[in-house]
Amino acid sequence: MLNQNISIDLLNKQSANCMPGYLGIEVTEIGEDYLCAKMPVNERTKQPFGLLHGGASVVLAESLGSLGANLAVDMNEYNCVGLEINANHVRSVREGFVYGKATLAHAGKTTQIWDIRITDEAGKLVCISRLTMAVLKK
């Protein structure tokens, strides 16, 4: 279960001066076992051929999974860090926004697994990613 007492505004402010903020990623929703965000497809997130860069999709996926993982633990006692991420890019996007939803698939004592699905504005699948997080005692 994710800590839903943390405000979305606070999460977005904390990310403003690091990778998610630079790419324009904004958290939009926190659920019981999921986290959602949107990211613009623009000059910061496109590759030279005018398409959404696969690396930007991976940044969105890892940002969502990492935030979610840390919201799923007592942050006074634990930190969660990425162990492994994979991504399958299934559709290109040229403009607008993409939307990510990270869902907790496994919450173990020492690891978490997150399933992240990124869609375009029409709801079509753009990228599927899986992120494994390590849960570390402070």
Draw up the topology in text.
Elements: H1 8-14, H2 19-23, E1 26-30, E2 34-41, H3 54-71, E3 78-89, E4 96-107, E5 111-119, E6 125-137
Antiparallel strand pairs: 1-2, 2-4, 3-6, 4-5, 5-6
Outline:
This protein has helices at residues 8-14, 19-23, 54-71, and strands spanning 26-30, 34-41, 78-89, 96-107, 111-119, 125-137.
Can you walk through the features of this model?
By secondary structure, the protein is an alpha+beta fold. The protein has one domain (8-137): Hotdog Thioesterase (Thiol Ester Dehydrase, Chain A). It has helices at 8-14, 19-23, 54-71, and strands spanning 26-30, 34-41, 78-89, 96-107, 111-119, 125-137. Strands 1-2-4-5-6-3 form a 6-stranded antiparallel β-sheet. Strand 5 (111-119) and strand 6 form a beta hairpin.
Query: What do we call the CATH homologous superfamily?
Result: Hotdog Thioesterase
> Strand fraction band?
35-45%
The strand line-up of the biggest sheet is 1-2-4-5-6-3
What letter string, H or E per element, gives the SSE order? Answer: HHEEHEEEE
Helix content: 10-25%
Structural class: alpha+beta
Largest β sheet strand count, sense and barrel closure: 6 strands, antiparallel
Q: Name the poorly predicted regions.
A: none
CATH class: Alpha Beta
Number of helices: 3
Mean pLDDT: 97
User: Radius of gyration over alpha carbons?
Assistant: 14 Å
Number of structural domains? 1
How would you describe the oligomerization state of the chains in this entry? single chain
Number of strands: 6
What is the approximate shape?
Answer: globular
